[in-house]
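Hello again, I could really use a second opinion on something today. I've dropped the whole record in just underneath, so have a look.
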Amino acid sequence: MADVETKYPLGSPLQHVKICEEHDSIIDILCEECYAFICSICARLNHNGHNWVTQATAALQRRRGIHEYLHNVKEEKISKLDEEMQKMVSQMEENESMCDTQVKDLQRHYDDIILKLTDIKKNQEDVLKDNLRKTNEKMKNAKHNLEKIRKSIIDIMDFMAENNSTMSDFSLIDNHRQLEELLCEMNRYFHKCGNTAKYIRGEYTQDMLEFMIGHIVELDDICHAETNSFKYVEDGIAFLQKGSQTRLFTWPIRVLQNRNTDICVVNLTSDTTGEIVIVTSSGHLKTVYSGQDLIGRFCPFNIECDIHSNILVTDPTNHTVHLLSPDGEFLKYLLTEREVTCPSAMSLHKSTLWIGDFKGA
């Protein structure tokens, strides 16, 4: 009995009559246009002109065709709903199958990338090891030559120390000159040693199978590029003459852009000889200077340009500085009495030329 009273507080399961909260009147009308339950006052004030009927009339109209209506809902709406739900189930199954296929494709793509990277890694390792072998071979040869130079220096030093008081002036000067040349040659080897192979990382595109692989770079290899293009390094330095396969340089060690935009390069042609190569800013060879009436071999070491675009070149082997015109023509020597022995370093500040030798003086 207690349960019935709780479920039906008024003691009856009958539906209570609904009252309009606005007008405190019984709600017994249905507005067909607004599909709202209203009272008679709402019908006159708020729904005037609308198509409204009493709830009893509306219910009677619906009861007359309820079975046909429910049948149509069941046959049309429910059937269509079941069909759409079945389509969703099929689509979910298809999505799962498609996902599995894409996962397999991704795995194959991944395997291709790993295989390609493995090949790339192997190739790069081979190149690195080959460059290491070449570099160490050069170092080995340089060490062998330095050992020979060292022995010659020691022999001349011992000879001069033992025979200083008895040797002729000519012999003293000649041995002294040979010793200085050996010392200059030794210092040139110091600058040649120490070039090692390097691996430079490259970037890759969004398509991970198309990589821009980094290159193995060795300093000497840059000077032997084989291409028809005009190659630049830093401030427009050309390693190939524009429009040809002619190599401009053997071993460029110094570079400077003149005030007239020409590129001036100290280029060693062997361990003990060199030249000055002048190239226009557009990449065409202008001139090559190979020395002027020298006692020893011309082996330039440093280069500067003055405010008039004249070119100054240190020549340690012949203990002098060459002054060239902007077109690379010899003008004169700046050092003629060996004021500086083996001039190497050089700096031009305004009208003052600073020169240093291999000993730091």
